[in-house]
Amino acid sequence: MIRNTRSFLLDTGAFLQIIEDITPVPPDAILVSFDVKDLYTSIPHTDGIHSTRWLLSNNNTNSGLIDLCCTLLSIVLNNNFFLFEDSYYLQTKGSAMGSNVAPPYANAYMAHYEDTLIYTNSLFRQHVLTWKRYIDDIFCIWKGDLDSLQIFFQFLKNAWPGLDFTMSHDPHQISFLDTLVNKDTDGNLSTDLYSKPTDRNSLLHYDSFHPPNMKKSIPKSQLNRVTKIVSDPVIKDQRISEMKSKFRERGYPLRILDNATTDHNIIKRPPASSRIPFIHQYHPAAYILHKTIRQHWHILQMAYPSVKEFQQPFLPCFKRPRNIKDSLIRADIGSIQPHTTQPTLKSVRN
């Protein structure tokens, strides 16, 4: 349902397709990005549930199912307790960061806001050529002068109580998600890889205790990301070289990096699989277990020929084992009072 909303952006890939479809744009157009500050913790429960009900109703959802979803959502929002030092807190506004419900809930709220106030705004209808949103990040192409853009920005900040926007704009270049969008003098758009000024080389070190297949797949995925985002062939070769240098700094062998840049390793979304997943924590000896299961898998195939899942080999999947970080970092920092002291209950808005 969220995907059916007018401004919805799934990911960087969808954004790149939009840039490709709309180029060129008027040469005097302004590239703009808006950001909603603290969106997850700024949504009043009543307004958020109302927006969710609006979204479900607009998608012809059964009224009984709408009531059930809103009831369950209310339980999640109104019972978010957490412990800090010696006090329990109840979050009375917004959704918990990291909660599974937070992204679709925030999307529903923003979609309702846009449909109610943005799309009907005269400045929007007159000047906005493109308006796409990834949760709380908005990409906009503005056909108008800076004065009209500033007026529209003030409208955004004042139109809906509780929502605060920031804005960046430039006639030639703007960053959005992990992409840098450039506009030349003819209005043609191109894309480049964007990294924040504070970005550091935090790629997984090759000597880390992780499955070998994972360490081989990371260069493939990152170099594939560069290939998709960077549109200029000359700059693309430069970015690939820079990415390979980062991996070399983290100990990756050159043969793995060279193999990751070949055309046949470009990553594509795999088709849906009916193979039975075997999920367990990673261990170097796990491959021996996998080999043993494969050797005897034919017993299941012969014993249960009508079970289609047994006709294909199982799919081994690893979970990350417990590491040093898990032992050193705790969400609960512990009590600062003697253990005889009982925690107290307090309320917090965000």
Please characterize this protein's 3D structure:
With 350 residues, the protein is an alpha+beta fold. The protein is 41% helix and 18% strand. It contains twelve helices and twelve strands. The protein has helices at 12-22, 45-58, 63-78, 102-118, 122-127, 146-159, 212-229, 233-249, 254-260, 286-295, 297-303, 324-328; strands spanning 30-36, 81-84, 87-91, 128-134, 137-142, 165-170, 173-176, 179-183, 189-193, 277-281, 315-319, 344-348. Strands 4-5-1-6 form a four-stranded antiparallel sheet. Strands 2-3-12 form a three-stranded mixed sheet, with no helix packed on it. Strands 7-8-9 form a three-stranded antiparallel sheet. A hairpin with a 2-residue loop joins strand 7 and strand 8. Helix 7 (212-229) runs antiparallel to helix 8 (233-249). The radius of gyration is 25 Å and the shape is globular.
Task: Enumerate how many helices there are, as a single number.
Answer: 12
Distance between the first and last residues' Cα: 27 Å
Strand content: 15-25%
Largest sheet: 4 strands, antiparallel
Mean pLDDT comes to 88
Radius of gyration: 25 Å
Element order: H for helix, E for strand: HEHHEEHHEEHEEEEHHHEHHEHE
Number of strands: 12
Assembly type: single chain
The largest beta-sheet arranges its strands as: 4-5-1-6
Q: Unreliable stretches, pLDDT < 50, 5 or more residues?
A: none
User: Could you estimate the helical fraction of the residues in percent?
Assistant: 40-55%
Name the structural class: alpha+beta
User: What is the 3D shape?
Assistant: globular
